[in-house]
Inverse folding.
């Protein structure tokens, strides 16, 4: 039975009266033998569980129960959604199939464009029809009539069924090397969580820097930046490594979620980690899945970033480091914790490290494999080893040495889901470019910008700001990239903005807007769901830190990128 992580204490002998999972037979009357703390995303409590997508009822006594529904994420620290219920029998079966209203809106968008909006003379009928299917697909990714992968598959099917694309063209992106690099990156993230290596690294930083609340925050922030290039899932880093540590530290200091005491310590640590995570992801190419997708889409438009891993780091390092290191201090002043000193934190970390024992063989293998992979990513161009091949080699080592097994890979549903819908979006975007639609759009925007007599720096600022603020309408960073990255990059190019500067700046922005709202990214849901930060504070400080990041990246970036010769 999986453990639960601190939020609300369950009585000894709390009983799991029903447990259902699609992969196993029902289990009944499993007992929690000791007092456990329950942490979760949702209303009041939760459970850390694996395998994913499990449903059950936890009873304190005969009069109350809780329904647990766990999301698909790396074990053992998968946050859960909790819904209170008086009686398991009273819980209604969830609605199956597509949600009617989102389905109607998503389909209508494509039909309106296809049949009611006049086709421009410069655009072919095939391109216009593909655009209508693409817009319906994107609308569905935002409104979610079905899960992302399922809706993307329906869009793919429509392109073939309507003979807009041939089967080979529609599925061409499934062999894309960047998409497979993203998939393998999810497996690396699982290895970090499974071995406990990510937890150990973060705990060491708590031990070294945790004597004060500010130092504790810096320890967690820096440790995430170090883990990020080898753990390219912000959600996995949040739910699998850092939130459990923050939760434990907060509870020990008497700072509890959904309580006035949350402002003692937990609210500040959660807010800081959440707001700083975007800069960690922006610092390294392999720190987030959407980074790789951005460069692939840029390549489709003819913008090639040479030696991508090194170039990405070199361009980002100054503004990202400045923002990363200033965020904890900024929030310490604007959103101060009540507890300023945490002298017990290093001792707690030391005790936890003792309980973890010496570094295991699996952890050493994980460290060595990731060092090898990162080295090959850095030197890949000189050695003639593509990034995806380096990742494949690393995964093969982990499988051969038993750090991961094939069941681990098969159960990483988010990886396979990403393969499905990323490939669909990349494939459609690539075909739209091949059919000349993107060029037509960029030329049209260029004429509009020219009418305002904007210089390319002014156009750069307007387009970057628009791309950033539009994310208030999106609940996914990767969905935002799939929907708008190619179009905005084409607008930059049409306005005369240097290609590599445009491509990288948009990609960095994609990471920075992940902390705007409680729905703006996967890690946003994890951190907000912990219950330490109120919704108004998520929006308020999301906007403040976004403005601060914009100032830091604009000023320091302008100087640094000029030195690097990007413009």
């Amino acid at each position: 039975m999986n453990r639960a992580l601190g939020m609300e204490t369950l009585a000894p002998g709390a009983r799991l009266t029903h447990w259902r999972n699609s992969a196993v037979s029902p289990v009944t009357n499993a007992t929690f033998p000791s007092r456990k703390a329950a942490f979760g995303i949702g209303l009041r409590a939760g459970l850390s569980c694996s395998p994913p997508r499990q449903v059950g009822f936890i009873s304190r006594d005969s009069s109350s129960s809780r329904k647990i529904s766990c999301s698909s994420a790396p074990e053992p620290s998968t946050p859960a959604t909790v819904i209170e219920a008086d009686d398991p029998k009273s819980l209604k079966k969830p609605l199956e199939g597509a949600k009617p209203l989102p389905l109607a809106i998503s389909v209508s968008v494509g039909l309106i464009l296809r049949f009611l909006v006049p086709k421009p003379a410069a655009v072919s009928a095939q391109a216009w029809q593909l655009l209508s299917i693409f817009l319906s697909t994107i609308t569905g990714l935002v409104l979610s009539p079905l899960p992302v992968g399922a809706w993307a598959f329906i869009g793919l099917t429509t392109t073939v069924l309507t003979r807009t694309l041939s089967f080979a063209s529609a599925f061409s992106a499934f062999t894309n090397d960047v998409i497979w690099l993203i998939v393998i990156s999810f497996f690396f993230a699982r290895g970090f969580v499974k071995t406990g290596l990510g937890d150990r690294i973060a705990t060491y930083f708590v031990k070294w820097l945790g004597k004060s609340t500010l130092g504790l925050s810096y320890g967690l922030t820096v440790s995430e930046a170090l883990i990020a290039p080898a753990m390219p899932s912000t959600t996995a880093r949040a739910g699998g490594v850092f939130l459990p540590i923050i939760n434990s530290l907060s509870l020990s200091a008497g700072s509890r979620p959904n309580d006035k005491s949350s402002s003692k310590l937990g609210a500040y640590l959660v807010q800081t980690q959440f707001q700083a995570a975007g800069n960690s992801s922006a610092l390294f190419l392999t720190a987030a899945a959407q980074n790789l997708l951005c460069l692939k889409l840029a390549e489709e438009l003819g913008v090639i970033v040479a030696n991508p891993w090194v170039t990405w780091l070199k361009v980002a390092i100054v503004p990202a480091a400045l923002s990363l290191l200033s965020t904890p201090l900024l929030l310490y002043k604007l959103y101060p914790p009540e507890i300023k000193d945490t002298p017990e934190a290093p001792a707690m970390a030391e005790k936890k490290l003792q309980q973890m024992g010496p570094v295991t063989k699996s952890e050493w293998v994980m460290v060595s494999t990731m060092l090898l992979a990162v080295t090959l990513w850095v030197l890949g161009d000189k050695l003639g080893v593509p990034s995806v091949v380096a990742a494949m080699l690393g995964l093969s080592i982990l499988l051969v040495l038993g750090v991961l097994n094939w069941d681990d890979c098969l159960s990483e549903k988010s990886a396979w889901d990403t393969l499905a819908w990323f490939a669909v979006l990349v494939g459609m975007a690539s075909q739209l470019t091949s059919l000349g639609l993107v060029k037509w759009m960029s030329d049209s925007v260029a004429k509009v910008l020219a009418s305002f007599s904007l210089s390319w720096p002014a156009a750069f600022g307007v387009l970057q700001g628009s791309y950033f603020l539009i994310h208030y309408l999106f609940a996914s960073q990767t969905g935002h990239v799939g929907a708008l990255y190619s179009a905005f990059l084409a607008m930059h190019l049409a306005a005369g903005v240097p290609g590599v500067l445009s491509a990288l700046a948009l990609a960095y922005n994609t990471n920075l807007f992940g902390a705007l709202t409680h729905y703006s990214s996967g890690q946003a849901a994890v951190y907000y769901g912990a219950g330490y930060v109120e919704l108004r504070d998520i929006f308020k400080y999301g906007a403040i830190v976004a403005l601060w990041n914009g100032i830091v990246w604009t000023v320091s970036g302008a100087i640094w990128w000029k030195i690097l010769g990007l413009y």
